[in-house]
Specification:
Aspartate Aminotransferase, domain 1, 6 strands, about 40% helix
Length: about 160
């Protein structure tokens, strides 16, 4: 599995390749000169010292501030709020996991991806950055989000959905 941006909270390029020992051993058993890279990747996966330090600091904060348990506690509230948009204008599907959610948006005939873009731009005018891509709106609030901030986000998204043609 490849993972990247979340390791440094997107502040610097850093990624990791996670593999079972058997898979790793298979790559290592292929031989070749010592200078060959077994898991060759671009800059994000190059183990630059500065992003590695940021990644370690991020992990330290996650542990020290008990962020995983905080997210577990907040996730049901977020799930309930996001799924409260079921049946809202243009919403075809909603799915979530933890503090991440995706909403499938009904497309405009002949103009794929236009409606999610318009929703995202309306949200930006309301002070919220949401990702959009293809036929989706993607939500990923920070781990320090409060229930009141989730309510503000979801209320703004509901308004944006209603304001979009």
């Amino acid at each position: 599995m490849n993972v990247a941006k979340q390791i440094t909270n997107g502040s610097l390029p850093l990624g990791a390749v996670l593999a079972k020992k058997e898979i790793y051993d298979t790559f290592m058993a292929q031989g070749g000169p010592d200078y060959m890279l077994e898991f060759a990747h671009g800059y994000t996966y190059s183990a630059h010292p500065v992003p590695c330090a940021v990644g370690l600091a991020t992990l330290d904060i996650l542990v020290r501030e008990n962020m995983v348990d905080k997210v577990k506690a907040l996730a049901p509230y977020f799930e309930n709020a996001v799924h409260g948009l079921k049946g809202a204008k243009h919403v075809a599907d909603i799915r979530n996991y933890g503090l991440a959610a995706g909403l499938t948006i009904d497309g405009l005939p002949g103009e794929p991806a236009k409606r999610p873009y318009e929703i995202a731009m309306t949200m930006l005018k309301k002070g919220f950055y949401v990702r959009y891509g293809g036929d989706t709106i993607q939500l990923a609030p920070p781990f320090i989000t409060t229930p009141a901030q989730i309510d503000s986000l979801i209320n703004a998204l509901g308004e944006s959905l209603n304001q979009t043609a």
